[in-house]
Structure formats: C-alpha cells, structure tokens
# Entry
Amino acid sequence: MLIVLPPSETKSDGGRGAPLDLATLSFPSLTAVRERIATALVELAGDPARSATVLGLGQRQLAEVDRNAALWTSPTRPAIERYTGVLYDALGVGGLTRASRTKADERLAVGSALFGVVRARDLIPAYRLSSGSKLPGMGTLAAQWKPDLTDALADLDDEVVVDLRSGGYRALGPIPGAMDVTVLTEAADGSRSVVSHFNKHYKGVMARSLVTTRKRVRDIDSLAAVVSDGGQRTEIASATELVILTD
# Structure
C-alpha cells in the first residue's frame, strides 16, 4: 500500500542529513524533471523581489527565498519529518512505535511541486514552491510533470494507492485507479458539505490508522474497515472513493 499525502507550505528547519542528492530519491525516473525545476528555483532565488512575486510571498515570508537559494547546500531530513502543519500534527510520526514508524516509512509518500513525489524516508531540504507556481521560462508545473509523474506512480507493481493529495497536486500527476478520500460534514438535518481546512486533520488521522494497522488494505471495503477501526465514520461512495463523515 502507498498512501500519498499532500505537502504543506510550512516546513521544519535544519536536519542532520547531507545536502540534497537527487540520485538518492525514490522514483528515479523523475530525476531529470526534479533537476530542471530545482535549478530554476535556485536561479529565481537570486532575485528576491521576483521570487516574492512568483511564489506569492509576503514581507514576513522572505526567508523562504533564502531556503530556496540554499537548496543544494542546506541539510536534509526525512520528508515525513520535513513537512509540518495540521495533517502532519494529526499523523504524529514522532509518537509512533518503532514498528509503526517502519510501516510509515514503507507506506507513506508526499506529493511535491518540486520533487513530484517522495517517499517518507527520502532526505530533502526545506524549500518553498507550490503546485500553482509558474517558474520563469517554464510555464505551469503541471506541464513540467506530465506525463512523467503519472507514469512513475502507475508503475508500482499493482500496489494499492490511496491518494490524499489536494486538487492542485493531483493535477501534477493523476494516479489511475487510486482510491480517493472526501471529507464531508453532516448536519443534524442530514445535509452535507465539504470540509475545507480541517479536512487535513481528518486525513492525518486516517493516515495514522493506515500506518498502525495490522490489516491489509486490498480494496475500498478493507480501506473503510481500517479507517473505521481508527474511530472515523466512513461511507463508501464508489469502488475508488471513500467518504469520511464528521459532525
């Protein structure tokens, strides 16, 4: 099973790993695209004012440009420890047992505008780049990643894939046959609406269930069973869509 998480704009600082080496990352077929985007991002960082405009940064976020400038030289850490925020707080990898952390390293991946997708254990630096960004001379990131990202994610030896990425990151590389998750809130009158910001929390809780379970996820029914065991209310919408219901 591969669970593809969305990234986060917020990332932890520092790390103990050696500087970025694209050749060590999972999904090596993506190396050429990664290098092209990384090179453009570092070059852009040489112009802080333009970087702020292209990346949509405010005055208090200009340190993000420094992160990009040091992309090839700054220390790295496992991707699952690099990304922070609501989803990653709910996932709580720091509190996992050794056995569950091993499962997390094996089962989790993170979508990325810069790297396409990385596995939990891949060593990456802090950076700033979003799915909707357009780097100078490169057009959209979706155009850069297609079809390489989809091809890489489709070549998983029939592995079950649960895609928790948001729409912008799915657009970079759709995964044929992946199981998707929608988070809905249900009112007392039975009406339902899509959960926006806090859907990240519920997906983090779900991801934690998937890396701590001993059950094997083979299809949408077994996925629903594991998520329900984790205390979340579920509903199967189709063979590839699971709904998580909240009050």
